[in-house]
Amino acid sequence: MMTELKLTSLHDVHTNLRARMVPFAGWEMPIQYEGIISEANAVRNSSGIFDVSHMGQLLIEGNEDLVTELEKIIPTDLKKIKLNQSKYSFLTNKEGGIHDDLIVTKVEKGFNIILNAACKNNDFKIISDSLKNKFKITLHKNLSLIALQGPKSSQILEKIISGVSSLKFMNGNKFSYKSKDVYITRSGYTGEDGFEISISNELAVDLAKKLRLQNVKPIGLGARDTLRLEAGLCLYGHDINESTSPIEANLKWAISQRRREEGGFVGYEKIKSDLNGSLSRLRVGIKPEGKIIAREGVKIFSEDGKEIGSITSGTFGPSVNGPIAMGYVKLNFSKPGTKVFLEVRGKKHEAKISELPFYKKSYVR
Fold first, then answer.
1. Deepest of 20, 149, 250, 319, by most Cβ within 10 A of its Cβ?
2. Which residue, among 321, 355, 235, has the nearest Cα to 41 in the 3D structure?
3. Does residue 357 have a cis peptide bond before it, meaning omega lies within 30 degrees of 0?
């Protein structure tokens, strides 16, 4: 029996714009409107609006005791995080793998945490079990999440919600829209400057229409995937999962130095072991030669024909005008510039290990 797909508050907006809708993590979501390449270019050159309301928005209310308890499952230095500051982090498991990657923001009541759509219910259980009902935990159902991304996002959103242009990257604050509170962070998933706007379901359509009046293009999940890959950002369930450690995933930077040294969180022994030299593989960027697109699952070989890894994400990158990919290779093949071969449809094609990201922009810090 098919489970009925959930619809976001902006569903009618998407269908009215003739979006191609697809099932995604239990939701019916727009994959594209007029085309992935034109949508990706719109974000790189101007601004685009994304409906990311399928993501989980979790509020955990508490004080210093909450910090102590959360640090047992999240390897971020929550003691040092400032009010309204956001940090990229993860929920780790006993084997040092990643249950989910997430964005943690310190707010007046405690912490807001953005969870991946496919993981949010499991995340809620993991966090609730760990905190043992000591704190109030709310997985919001009455909030939408709208992302506005691209170099013109700040000047566009400032016309609608005064004061947002003063936010720095990975910081947020409460603002007013239609006399109601909205929470906005300067963040995103595209490698561009932009914002994520947490807004009540009742006001989401109104805001989306206001943004469209500013000639902001609607962007689907297809272009979002292309943009995040160009920016070297991981997609949960593909580039990272419960069997990849943050160190293997080349995400050591997201574990605070104090936490790397002191530990005290789930899976630390494996992560400490990886940090201390037992690492056997690493997530890397890969640039295929020519026009070949290497999709997830494609095997990677060394020059002498040995299998050394596999692709986890691959696409055509409009901003770099060529194919790009990410994957895991044995550690001694991870140096940028190393020649490798990708087996696509039974033939081996030349490629090179590349530094990440493929496309770099400046954030407002």
1. 149
2. 321
3. yes
Q: Burial code of 256-290, b = ≥16 C-beta within 10 A, e = fewer?
A: beebbeeeebbbbebbeebbeeeeebbbbbbbbee
Distance CA 240, CA 234 (A): 7
CA distance 247 to 92: 12
Look up residue 74 and give its two tokens. Answer: 């999240």
Sign of CA dihedral 287, 292, 294, 300: negative
In Å, how far from its chain's centre is CA 67? 23
Q: What is the pTM of this model?
A: 0.96
Rounded to whole angstroms, the Cα distance separating 127 from 311 reads: 31
Residue spans of alpha helices (H) in 119-192: 120-131, 153-160
